[in-house]
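Collaborator request, handled under Task 6.
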Amino acid sequence: MALAFCGDEGNSTAYNVDHGVLNNGCFVDALNVVPHVFLLFITFPILFIGWGSQSSKVHIHHSTWLHFPGHNLRWILTFILLFVLVCEIAEGIVSDGVSESRHLHLYMPAGMAFLAAITSVVYYHNIETSNFPKLLIALLFYWTLAFITKTIKFVKFCDNGVGFSQLRFCLTGLLVVLYGMLLAVEINVIRVRRYVFFKTPKEVKPPEDLQDLGVRFLQPFVNLLSKGTYWWMNTFIKTAHKKPIDLKTIGKLPIAMRALTNYIRLNEAFEAQKNKRPSSPQGSGSIWRALCCAFGRPLLLSSTFRILADLLGFAGPLCISGIVHNVGKGNNTIRPQTKILGVFFISSQEFLSNAYVLAVLLFFALLLQRTFLQASYYVAIETGINLRGAIQTKIYNKIMQLSTSNMSMGEMTAGQICNLVAIDTNQLMWFFFLCPNLWAMPVQIIVGVLLLYYLLGISALIGAAVIIVLAPVQYFVATKLSQAQRSTLEYSNERLKKTNEMLRGIKLLKLYAWEHIFHSSVEETRQKEMTSLKSFALYTSISIFMNAAIPIAAVLITFVVHAHLTKKADFSPSVAFASISLFHILVSPLFLLSSVVRSTVKALCYFCLSVFPQPLKVVNRKRPAREDWNNYTSHTRRPINITEPDDFCVKITNGFFTWTPEGPPALSNIDIRIPQGQLTMIVGQVGCGKSSLLLAILGEMQKISGNISWSSWKLLFCFSRKRGSVAYASQKPWLLNATVEENITFESSFNKQRYKAVIDACSLQPDIDILPHGDQTQIGERGINLSGGQRQRISVARALYQQTNVVFLDDPFSALDIHLSDHLMQEGILKMLREDKRTVVLVTHKLQYLPHADWIIAMKDGYIQREGTLKDIQKSETELFEHWKTLMNRQDQELEKETTIETKTVLERTNLRRTMYSREALLKDDEEDEEEATESDDEDNLSSVLHQRAKMPWRACGKYLSAAGILLLPLLVLSQLLKHTVMVAIDYCLARWTSDAISEKMEVELKNCSHCEVFNHSPYSKIFSILCCLGIVLCLVTSIAVEWTGLKVTKKLHASLLNKIILAPMRFFETTPLGSILNRFSADCNTIDQHIPATLECLSRSTLLCVSALAVISYVTPMFLIALVPLAIMCYFIQKYFRVASRDLQQLDDSTQLPLLSHFSETVEGLTTIRAFRYEAKFRQKLLEYTDSNNIASLFLTAANRWLEVRMEYIGACVVLIAAVTSITSCLYSKLSSGLVGLGLTYALMVSNYLNWMVRNLADMEIQLGAVKRIHGLLKTEGCWFIFSFPCNWPDRGEIQIQNLSVRYDSNLKPVLKHVNAHISPGQKIGICGRTGSGKSSFSLAFFRMVDTFEGRIIIDGIDIAKLPLQTLRSRLSIILQDPILFSGTIRFNLDPEKKCTDSMLWEALEIAQLKHVVKALPGGLDAIVTEGGENFSQGQRQLFCLARAFVRKTSIFIMDEATASIDMATENILQKVVMTAFADRTVVTIAHRVHTILNADLVIVMKRGLILEYDKPEVLLEQEDSVFASFVQADK
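Structure tokens returned to the collaborator:
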């Protein structure tokens, strides 16, 4: 066939120029080529020589990305231009197909224009990124020329009577408009930027964000193509494959997306709403309006994208219908009759009746639809993330104003706040994500039903009715599912609470042999949770079943009705397969709409209830004088004279304070003054209100009446002092999840000299030396990896380090031994604070320090008993003074120290060293476990780590599936395979049925006989029905099999985990962070319970659907296999790169949420400290940083998901295009049946969805299997049991023989007790004392086999304890620990969890422990509630409860390990007497904190460095001159 620009028919009019050259169609087309050649000629040298030689300039840092005016409009117009040009090329080829020779001028100019359009946009992008607008002049000329030449062509068409019925006329008109608009955009750039025709060009700076090299999230700044395809993510995802992603890699958030920006935006919207309706209360309506005002615009954009995507989604079924219909007719385009200017013209109808044209249009529609859909998702999620950041900031600001009583009364717990932040704000984020569905889905449903009706008539409505009727059932199931999930969550929270308490008190449980009680308690809750999980699994399987089965049922009913009732109806493949595609489109919105509506309602409830209107008590802020601290300006301080009435720092007159507004006053009739620059001590019995007084002064209590005034005259002090804050160390030490140094400096600037002095004063240096990274060691989980004393001293060190004028210390000595207390008092309080003339208020039980006080406040039962100097009290309150004197056991004298003091317990340090040693080992294991990359110079190592990161954890998958058992696994695999085989068979059957029906119909038409037999549908419909019913049954089997597997695995894993953990040796708990164990029980168990089964089902379904779809297409057109290879390679690499990046980002998203949540809980726990220090602003700033870190990780994760989906969708579109072209060609030239063409295309259309789901689920599965792996890691923990026969009443006498005993904490650590020998007779009272770290506590733990006894033995009543079962041994002894541990529940449960004692026995124990009056006053008495950790009792009261608990267990051996540390001396003395009398017949071993408490003991053991130094009666030791015990007693006076 001849090929020429104008064609070469012999009598061609194409070369006829009789009526002027412009009236020759070919010439006009040739003229149209000129602008495109001009542009290509001008720009190619600039593009390839100019930028090619300096390629670095193209990749200048993104700070130079300046969008010229009309940037987005230019891109949109260019995309439209490219699409119109493709249509013009196609129109030229189709219309040329009817002539004998090829007319190049019909499509070659359009081809050149297409090239030029692409070049123009590449050229423009390069000019824009290098910010060199003068080069745009070339484009100005191009658009002008193109516009002129196209206009000439259009005018000539009009002159020759070509009209709208011809497609080429419409396309030319469109091109004129597009070129005109692009020319207008170019002129606008000149007008705004003034780069040409103006004297001074306009200087433009890039956006502020882009001037910051730290901003790496570029979605808002890149061009439209990169925005739509997430092209800018390519380099990021490639980098992620080379090295792990961390916060540094993802950089900062752009300003517009930062939490502060969004918070301000939200607040402004709220203020605007308030101003509009100042009188009306702030209801949910105004909140809603404010939200719409702040975040409504992007939501509207997302909804628009969504509706466009949904409408374009219908192009698939319609194009399939058209292609199959046209192919069935042999793709014969009607021969056009119109011939003008020597060429043929075709109409749009003729153009669309070409199957190849429809295939190309389908390809473009899919590309566009997928791009719009992903854009809609992205914009919605981004808006949700922005809203989440704003609301978290709002919640935080509200928390900062919480009253302390809100927390202590349990009205608002740290857990509730974490839920509010972690769950409720995410609910809102997902509401924004789902919001566009609310209006897009109804539109989709209506259009879908109308199209079905158009294709199938009345039978379509019957099929749609099936789906619509079953939609409420689906809604009902979804409602039940969410109810099951809610009850599962409640039981899960209850189980976690119990597990948490069990783990926190594990030492006590092991010592008291109560593991079985708590084990059965957790198991009982787990059983309830499992019942809930079963219903959750049942409804999940019904939901999965309905999603899969309803489309099959709808298709079955529709086609059977259509075939049998409407005899003359069109039952062709084109109708059948288009209908199947429409049903698939319809099912999703119909089922999801109910869920979306429910989620919306739920989110709105959360929104209105949780976040805004809830009134919380705000702290008492009526302290204007204190606010004025910021105005201090003077330089020197005037000397203080206590007699001056105004020389006070704080003064309270007639103060009545309460914790709850409606409750009784906790402090009554308070009249005190705290002198300026002096040391004030507050003393009194346990629970008399000492700590409350400090909090009242700080404004943390609700004031009923009275005044608190802070000194208002100008203080004169040096510039460096920080003003306006009180350095406060609370009774319960509060630490940040930060380094030791950060905890001490606490947001202040670092001063090395001062820091060193504080460390020395608090004796922290030896502890710091032990830590693996010194003072840079992270101490977290409420400072859990430190002992009580260490936490206390860091808390005090923080107060000492601050440069504030006022320091409040609440019982800083409670967890310290005598030497540490003295050192802290001398070096810290007296030397650093008092000598520096700072106002110090000290709450203490250590009455021996009273002589140091300048001012004393004595409290009793919530009122002030007396205040004044010690001499004042000696004169006026002789009785009180004498009482104190007996308690102090000494006169007012300075402490004399003999030798240098061993500053802190070597035991604590050994513990710490031991913990650190094992923790490092554990971290190493974790790293191997998590297969995380560590920076290493060794390239081989790095490459192997990277290889591991790219690998799927198949072993963990195997462990998970093997836990399902031998029966379930084959059922699971076989049912899935069978189901998908049947699915393919159903569609194949339909293809055969429709093909046979249409071919018979065509034969009848050809024969033209009126009485020919009508096609018999019955055999086909029967086979079709049987297959459909089988498919539905298999859907049910697979959905049940998956959920059943999940239930079996989850039950097995949790039971194994709990058994292993509870039997683990104490060593395991000392070396494993509590948070790590809790995470296994919470997050990991939740993943295995609820997420893995769903992901497994989804993954297997999407994989098998994908495989079956590709198999069907390959069966229909084997040619497709050739194209499949490159596509498969692309898919493989995309998923490989995505999985690595996705996992890192997912982990980063989770890990950045943890600091955010812990910052919230830290703030809640340390509210009083933060407010005392006046550090609210600093903590708010920290919150903004944490929120932004979490949000940037979430945004990158969203962008990565969109990156994957866009690419998979585009590959899917390519699959459709290739499948369509190959099947059309096969049908036309190899006589393939049109039914199989329909089948192939229907499957091709779904490939992209399946591909997406497959890769996403693979990535999810990889992350979720980490939970299985971590739990299996813990299951390797070894527990131990011993079996030995012994008397049932053992030990009845309480005789203890210790023979050559040596113990250590671990086989690789040094011994802490060495060759100890002792004999304790029945009923003896033994006191053990020694310097801190001498091995006293290890001695007590040896009785319970909590430490490794590697030599010697302990014999109690003739039995070697090493041979006894641990459970029995520990249940027959009693111990009271230094740290008081109470469990949530009743007082009765805390005293007697085994339920063995009568009420009278419990009251007796409470009376002994001096608690009877306290418990009697509580509502419920013995059944009064104890909150978590015993927070509703003071520290001293908690210790007394622990004593009572030990008294309840009437064992013959009783050990007290520094049990009276938090108790005032008076109570302690009473207790000591009671112990001596109430336990006259029992053996009592007391480890002494205060040496005077063991002066009445029968025997005293003095220890040093794990050896017994002295062992005799106390009176004998006191008489010896060189006795160490005597020196201890002397020092303790």
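The cover message to the collaborator said: "The mean pLDDT is 78. Residues 3-204 form one domain. Please let us know whether this matches your experimental observations."
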